[in-house]
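User: Sequence for Integral membrane protein below. Tokens please.
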Amino acid sequence: MGGMTTGKAFNVGEGARRPRGKAVLLILLWVASRMLPRLPTPGRSHHDDGEFDGDGAGQRGQRSGLRERGRVLFREHRTAWRERAGARILFLRQQASIEACRAGRDSADECRREKTLDGIRQHLEEAARGTYHRRRLFSGAAALERTWANVRAADVMLLSLCSDEDLMGRSIDVLRKTEQHLDKDDPLRVKVEEVAERIGERGVQPGDRILLMDALDTAYDALDAEYSRVRSLSGILRIATFFVLLGAGGLAVWGWFCPDSLNMCFLPEGKKFAACPSGEVHLKDGNVASDYAQRVDVLVIEAAGLAGAALTVIASLRSIQGTSSPYMLPLSAALLKFPTGALTAFVGVLLIRGAFIPGLSDLDSSAQIIAWAVIFGAAQHLVTRFVDERARVTLSDVGRPPSESESNLPKKG
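Assistant: Structure tokens for Integral membrane protein:
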């Protein structure tokens, strides 16, 4: 009876555990389904919504299309720039829908407006695809550039459709962008300043609309060039970080398999032990310093260098500033410090080991070796501070005319 009772209790407990396991599995599947990006249904065309039609059916299609796009746009985003781009796309779609309600002056003007609206729609569709594009390694910059290039093109095309009253208001925005991104002596900026000053008194004159469109497009091109410099420098720093990390990792592997060839041990005078980074080793008759080298010596030195580099990164956070650029250039500059610190720690201890620095030919303990490795790891700031300065200047150039950007360059000599 006791055995049967125990068996029944065991069976009940096992049966109670099974549903809980299934419930946990279902919960995990549900969480995974919510986290995975949902792409649009294949075969669905975003051009079939009647987005810019003026009749009732088109408006109903437009409203349903906006709801559908809203679900697609805002459920696929995982980064801040995608959210901001999605909001901008929805705003431009609404502006284009308003312009679709206005009729042209004649048949030729009506045809031109329809073609322009169709072009705006295509640009916004391409921008929307960029926002919900599946995130892959090294594909974020391409999706970002694709999205904002199409958004800016649609914004420029809207200038050709807006009324004269709206154009007078938009002229202030165009003037602000040209002053931000074009040089003070640029002929296009000078013309825009004249138009913006005159347009409030005399109204829109023939040729003003084309001039403002060209100025806005040129200002956007200048902004893209500024972001391209930030993206290029960020990419260069990431590649440099990879190769420096590869070099530091290669030295660690070399020291692991051939510890005697990268000897980090010292034989202090009057001591009965050899001082190695991984600890002290008792001396044996007839052995040299390389005979006491351990596999983890280089790894310990580089770990201490990483700690020293981390201290400099923490100290540099007090002067770090936020940036409106979508590329994390300060982060790329900070990441370069870590493998560089590991490398400078190894080189510094190697110089001491080779009696290159007078007075430091023999370190007395492993604690001294690690301490000097930390110091050499922190000393990487002497090299990377030029990278920090270049990153700061590059970020400060965004949103400034070329003449002001050149004045921010560090003085030579």
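The two ends are 97 Å apart (CA to CA).
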